[in-house]
Predict the structure.
Amino acid sequence: MSQEERKTYIVFDRSTGAVIGTHLVYDARTRTYVEHAPENVLEIFHGSMKGRTSDQIGVSEISLPRGRDVSGYFFDVKAKKLVPRLRLDVKPERTQLQGDGKDTIQIQIGVLGDGGKVADDFNGELRVTTTRGRLSASGGQIKATQGRGSIKLTSVAETVDRVWLTVRDLAGRCARGKAVVEFV
């Protein structure tokens, strides 16, 4: 471990790999970071487990470069390492709909990994929200299979400059995706 790295404990959800938090303690007197047993780290995070039991939470010790923010990462439970979060790519078939309450478009959603390639091993629940219009799935909840999903959006009977579509992974493994359409 270099001077620019420090031992950090990552607290994560064992089923999804979502990072719940990080932990490290700096001893100002000795000017060093203090090591803890993983059980002690779990005790510290007990209050922020949000309905999870301790067997659903994991702790892993990693070397983390100084200043690195883990918000763009999740813990790959199989590989046992911190990896960049996937990203959601939202592509409406067109960006303008007639504001007649009838016009409908298909929205394709891709889960992208390294190099912008579809993450074929991704299967999970996504939630799509819109600022206007009607989505084809109840509550905007859809299932992505092999890194792909889709949903339909129907316009409302009015003109709207910007209609925001937002997609998020319910398990927190992906960065949110967004697109904008308009009703003319």
